[in-house]
């Protein structure tokens, strides 16, 4: 579960880079 949360956080941070 912790890994999933970290992955989601990284994914959202990655999307922010494009915004």
Short description:
By secondary structure, the protein is mostly helical. The chain has 1 helix and no strands. It has one helix spanning 2-18.
Structural account:
This protein is mainly α. The protein is built from 1 helix and no strands. The longest helix is centred in the middle third of the chain and has 17 residues.
Task: Please supply descriptive tags for the structure shown above.
mitochondrion; rod-shaped; Cytochrome oxidase II; single chain; 19 residues; mainly alpha; 1 helix
Topology of this protein?
Elements: H1 2-18
CA(first)-CA(last) distance: 28 Å
Rg over C-alpha atoms, rounded to the nearest angstrom: 9 Å
Helical stretch count? 1
- The low-confidence runs, each spanning 5 or more residues with pLDDT under 50, are none
Helix/strand order, N-terminal first: H
Q: What characteristic shape results from the CA principal axes?
A: rod-shaped
- Let me know the average pLDDT: 87
Number of strands: 0
Taking the sheet with the most strands, its summary is:
none
- Binned, the helix content reads over 70%
Structural class: mainly alpha
β-strand percent reads under 5%
